[in-house]
TrEMBL record:
Signal peptide span: none
Natural source organism: Botryosphaeria parva (strain UCR-NP2)
InterPro entries: NAD(P)-bd_dom_sf, SDR_fam, Sec_Metab_Biosynth_SDR
GO molecular function: oxidoreductase activity
Protein name: Putative short-chain dehydrogenase reductase family protein
Similarity field: Belongs to the short-chain dehydrogenases/reductases (SDR) family.
Keywords noted in UniProt: NADP, Oxidoreductase
SUPFAM superfamilies, per database record: NAD(P)-binding Rossmann-fold domains (SSF51735)
Cited PANTHER family: 7-ALPHA-HYDROXYSTEROID DEHYDROGENASE, OXIDOREDUCTASE, SHORT-CHAIN DEHYDROGENASE_REDUCTASE FAMILY (AFU_ORTHOLOGUE AFUA_1G14540)
One Pfam family it belongs to: adh_short
Length: 235
């Protein structure tokens, strides 16, 4: 059997012609996912984050990829997906150029480590809004577009970025991820419910739960995590 060339995503799987929306995709894991999906044949990948210039820069980078399909493109749709108003804005922007969505990757999220004494109500609520509540309401709003093309043979997909912190305690030096870990544990249960409820509508729902890996967000903490082998950041 011929070995797969990992630089050619068509040898691994094909997303030819698929329309993809990714929240939190102007950098980090979301941007990497967008790159992979474009190279796997997606026709449109919508790039969203709070900052318009970051979305524009990410799309410029993605649209220079040499091995995406002719005519395929990344499209900037800046919006704050931590709020209901922002999710509606995202939906409105996406709806201008497509009548369906095949894949929704709810990736927007952030962790703000703090000790239990310094974790305030606002910080806790903000973390739940971004990391948990936004997932539900983003799925809810995009459901009409996700049901357009899904079939038994080729269902639409919801993918949600959870975290290893949903399963195990992770500390950043002397502080912890109280709200973030609770939100991600909630995400896992939410996606189980989505899978049961939306499966009959030809929508497959899954979580991914990555560990720590090197991004702009984790780079400042690399010295802390590299103290113990089991805490080292994936490169």
């Amino acid at each position: 059997m011929a070995s797969a060339n990992l630089l050619d995503f068509h040898n691994i799987f094909s997303l030819e012609g698929k329309v993809v929306v990714i929240t939190g995709s102007s950098k980090g894991l979301g941007l990497s996912a967008a790159s992979g999906m474009l190279q796997a044949g997606a026709s449109k990948v919508y790039i969203s984050s709070r900052t318009p210039s970051a979305c524009e820069d990410a799309c410029a980078t993605l649209n220079r990829l040499p091995n995406k399909k002719p005519g395929a493109k990344a499209i900037p749709v800046p919006a704050d997906s931590s709020t209901i108003q922002g999710i509606q804005q995202l939906f409105d922007l996406v709806s201008k150029t497509t009548d369906h969505v095949d894949i929704l990757l709810a990736n927007a999220g952030a962790a703000h480590p703090a000790s239990i004494e310094k974790t305030g109500e606002k910080e806790f609520s903000d973390s739940l809004d971004l990391n948990l509540k936004s997932v539900f309401f983003c799925v809810q709003r995009f459901l009409p577009l996700l049901t357009v093309r899904g079939t038994v043979q080729d269902p639409s997909r919801i993918i949600v970025t959870s975290s290893i912190s949903a399963f195990s305690q992770i500390a950043v030096g002397d502080v912890a991820l109280y709200a973030y870990a609770a939100a991600k544990a909630g995400v896992n249960q939410l996606v189980k419910q989505l899978a049961v409820d939306l499966g009959p509508r030809h929508i497959v729902s899954n979580c991914i739960a990555p560990g720590l890996f090197l991004t702009d967000a984790t780079a400042p903490h690399i010295g802390v995590f590299n103290v113990y082998p089991e805490q080292r950041i994936i490169r």
